[in-house]
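debug: dumping io for the single-chain case to check the tokenizer round-trip. Nothing else runs in this session.
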Amino acid sequence: MDDQKKLTRAEQKARRPVQILDAAFEEFVERGYVATRVEDIASRVGVTKGTIYVYFETKEQLFEAMIRHISAPFEDLLSSVNELKGTATERLQKQIEQIYDLIINDRKLRELMRFVIAEGSRFPQIVDRHHDAFIYPLEQQMASLIEDGVKCGEFRAAPAAFADVVIAPAIAFLVFKLTFEDRRILDRDTYLKAHVDLILHGLCEPAFASGCL
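debug: decoded output
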């Protein structure tokens, strides 16, 4: 019995950092960075304020750790790009599709974006952290994929071969979803098809056009 209790306490201790980060996320997106108090995070977890400081020395450090924690699914997406097979066009289409799936299925990523939009003008360093954790790695992956397509003659070295432009419609979709929630529905499949069609018309070399589109 004592061993079971010790095991339970050990398991709880092992899970504590994740519990704190999840609670911090909820508090930050609900109250904003400035209004969030460490004691409120502790209360949500069911621990003392001092327990939070055992794992994170400052609120800023806790926020940075929370960003990394929430970015885990995004990092999985970036890793999966290296495993995609097929032509540059097929891989680009698949990556864009995965981005939309992540936007739709991961509430925490959506809410983090809402937080960044709301707090960004007052706390530019928060925006920079979000960009470094989410946007920049995606831009680099997309740029590398497009470069592969250009090198093999599948894509044109055109203005459309700019990672920010390729990603932009997905960001617009995310902002729409954040703004209207379920009050207005933007069909994912229709929007995705239009996004891919628009990008590939700008990227594909004429000789590859039929295969692209």
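debug: round-trip ok. The mean pLDDT is 85.
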